# Entry
Amino acid sequence: MDWAHAWFGTFRYSGPVNGYPGAWCPEHFTSIHEGATMSTVSRTFTVQPGPAVVVPYLADFGNAEQWDPGTERCVREDSGPVRVGSSWHNTSKIAGITTELTYTLEQLTDERVVLVGRNDTATSTETIDVTPDGTGSKITYTNELEFHGAAKLATPIAKVVFEKLGNDTERQLSDVLNGLGR
# Structure
């Protein structure tokens, strides 16, 4: 078994994309639409701590250094309590490429955290829904990555990379959050 099948399972042909002949993509990926500029990855899983522990931890995006496998550094740009409008400078390395985004906490409720990272080439929206599940939490983590300008050409390739990263993030985030409940 080669590395691609080990990571992604069965492949299917996507068909032509923007005049290019198409590509072989993991079977469970959503269709790549002509002109698409966004890659969306979503995972749902449960953890032991309840929402009262999970939501504040995830709202402080500085903690991404612990749970996001791509994040190398994430530094708060403002001070005081974490609140809507708080921001972080994030440095990530994904597939060998280093990128920097400024993330802002756009929404914070008892059940939802929305962080939006921006730079000249992309906007990354991370929506984390947290609902009670027994004594623990059910988490739905969704990352929407929208490319701008010439970077739009990377959308089909990014989908493959971000599906793998989504699996890694689910695993690492579960481990870290479950460690909070100990």
